[in-house]
Amino acid sequence: MAVSLGPDQCSSGTFTAPALFGAEILGLKASTVQNFTRYVSDQEFAHNPEVFVQDAAFCNVTVTYTHPGQNDVIIVETWLPFEWNGRLQAVGGGGWTTGRTELTQSMMAGALSTGYATSTTDGGFGHSQTPIPWALLSPGNVNLYALQNMGSVTLRDQAMIAKALIRSFYGQPPEFSYFNGCSHGGRQGYQLAQRYPDAYDGIAASAPAIYWSQFLHAMLWPQVVMKSLGQYPRGCELDYIQSAVISLCDDKDGVSDGIIMDPDACEFEPSSLIGTSFYCREIESDMAISEAAATVAAGFQRGARGPNDEFLWHGPNWGSNSTTTIFGTPGLAATLCENSTCSGLPFPFGLWWAGLFIDKDPNFDFASLTAKRFAEQFHLGFQEYTSIIGTTDPDLTLFQRAGGKMVTYHGLNDELTPSKGTRDYYEAVTKITPDVHSFYRFFEVPGLGHCYGGNGGQPTRLFEALRAWVEEGIAPQNVVIDVPGNGSREERVICPYPQKVRASQSRRPGSVKFYCSSD
């Protein structure tokens, strides 16, 4: 039920301090915000189209609290619109943050634009974007309370606090509650479904950073391969190999558009390109693909391996960018070249995980990491941290019984969190709950990078599909996306796994029909 209130309701005295077992409320502050204006792109507002928020008015409530004995201070920020649609849309974080960042503010603004109350938590990490300030209490001793806060505890707290504030302000609980996040926010959504199954009615959680230790540590694998070779290929070599594999496998789906629609069907050996001459923009000259570049490209796609070539973790699919992320930062196989000498650029997220959490050493030196030690670290991280932040429990029966619904998309060109990890998880859930489709659906998006970017289309209709599923019982089938190209946008579909999108020529010359198939 929609509710309309005035700014005079927005005062600290309106609210009763939320009752939170195991926590102590340190403070509550309420302030009126008016004439709030912000543009939010569809890349910032996961699962939703772009919005322009204009002259919005809301009550901004911050609750500061601690878990006694744990030496933490956590802030939950909740925006309560004066024109409320009766619903809550909490948002997740990204990278090494739980929330309360510029990104989460954009997501909150997007939710606010359609009348949602919305909430975020800083998890106790303030404005820190990295784990460096808090990971270690001292060399050899990880701050497990902080990691536990990030992994799960503050997610429960956020839901309980936001709902309590809504009840105080509007005089009624939210009719429906949702959680929205991508990347780390996606992992948070999965953790909520696994550990706090009645916290939200609907969860939109995409490109989820689940199997936390495995995927973070595997981010170092391309650099381990280069270190083992003693050779560091130029980025232009790896970029050329990426372009070559797209050219080879693009047409297999019947549409020439720079997108590998089904990476599973893409058979490619980078070694076939050794000796191929191409123009390298970095050196403004022609050069040939080296054996080292082919080996690194193969390692990037195959994923991390142990001493006997045993599988450790997935790599990104063919067509994913190995040298640059969608954020414009160096990718997993990036190198730095000065004149004719190149060196590796290990990805910071993997370095922090291996050094601070597995070795527990603030002076961890990647230069000393051998392939053998990498495999040992991999298993240690899995053993020590899966229960805290791994987010791998495939038993979602309590979430199903609570009536929860969850939707996920994962870009098939995700260069950071391999989409095969999410596929593994969905198949693991299916083994326990064969009717998984009745409450949890997973969509693979051809051409899409990590949460956004690449040549694929952004799933901007997925949140509304989730809402229709929760509130009207209409399960999402083939979800329409808009794929950019040649100055226009083309409508295509993404399909609930295990279906895949296929293309066929339509009766109209030059046009293509996209559909879902179980073949």
Automatic annotation (TrEMBL):
The keyword Disulfide bond applies. Keywords: Calcium, Disulfide bond, Hydrolase, Metal-binding, Serine esterase, Signal. It is an enzyme of class 3 (hydrolase). It holds the Pfam family Tannase. The keyword Kinase does not apply. GO terms for molecular function: feruloyl esterase activity; metal ion binding. It comes from the Eukaryota. Its EC number is 3.1.1.-. SUPFAM superfamilies: alpha/beta-Hydrolases. Belongs to the tannase family. This is Carboxylic ester hydrolase.
